[in-house]
């Protein structure tokens, strides 16, 4: 559905591709794009996380098990890949206006931290899920607890 409805393909830069998927306001297309992004973990950065996390949160409102599973997978990637960076920046906010790149990184980390906190609350609603999804949900809950 991703290629047919939007023209997005695996060679697109991740952030613009995800933004297009989100703008289409179709969770199926967003899921497809997040799955493409999962195949390119080295291309993720904090900016992509700030765009992806609200979309991931929307997936946890879905009744489609696959959407929830993709949301878990993407959130797991973000916490494992960026969790330490986010925590470190939250624990050492920039002082003064000396280092602009540090201030920007702090802002992105703060936004990610807030979004992960909000998503963690959503995830717990699905804690009783069974099977593969239930395992993924419980893993996210455990990761989220260690994130704080």
Q: What topology does this entry show?
A:
Elements: H1 2-6, H2 14-23, H3 27-38, H4 46-59, H5 65-91, H6 100-124, H7 131-147
Low-confidence stretches: 1-6
Give the percentage of residues in beta strands. Answer: under 5%
> Into which percent range does the helicity of residues fall?
over 70%
Form type: globular
Mean pLDDT, rounded to whole units?
87
Account of the 3D structure:
The protein contains 7 helices and no strands. Residues 1-6 have low confidence and may be disordered. The protein is mainly alpha-helical and 148 residues long.
List the defining traits of the structure above:
7 helices; single chain; 74% helix; mainly alpha; disordered N terminus; 148 residues
